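Try it yourself: sequence plus guanosine-5'-monophosphate, in.
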Amino acid sequence: MDLLKQRILKDGKVRKGNVLKVDSFINHQMDIALLCEIGKEFRRRFSDEGITKILTIEASGIGIACITAQYFQVPVIFAKKSQSKNIDGEVYTQKVESFTRGRIYDVIVSKEFLHPEDKVLLIDDFLANGSALQGLYNLAKDAGADVVGAGIVIEKGFQPGGKMLRDMGLKIESLAIVDSMTDDSLSFRE
Ligand code: 5GP
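Structure, out:
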């Protein structure tokens, strides 16, 4: 998606630890006009799939998922990062390793909101090692739902998550795939 790639080149900032900061248009201040174009593009790439729910992870996926959902007219569920244990069996739980903080945490979704008849589109801002997306995939599968695919805004193609999840058969549509990045250069996969 050209508009997104141009914006990353203009305003993205490379930080140590292979972190790309996009705080001025996605992760802190949000450019809604750009997010609308992102939502329309996800709709175009997942048209005619009968999607019934969008599943994302808090916090940074929520805004993107909500804007995208307007083009699908379906509800958004966000997996919550949770401290508490699943004692009463009312939630699905998965473990996710945070890319930016390095620690492992539980994410939960209430059993009330995901069902076997659901066709789920996963949405997230970044794909790096794949732990967040794998966690979302597993949550949907725990509910017996059908995972139609994943829409990712920025995939870092030099990290292993994209290959790992595509090898599992997941359809992943990334709007910009960064192939390499250094302090002063960044290149995209065609
Ligand atoms: P993964 O689980 O694929 O290793 O990492 C994906 C998650 O980590 C995303 O939900 C995103 O919030 C965060 N993340 C991974 N890489 C980056 C990055 O380069 N920049 C930012 N801002 N977030 C990242």
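One thing you can check immediately is this: The pocket of guanosine-5'-monophosphate is lined by residues 19-21, 27, 57, 60, 99-100, 124-133, 161 (CB under 6 Å).
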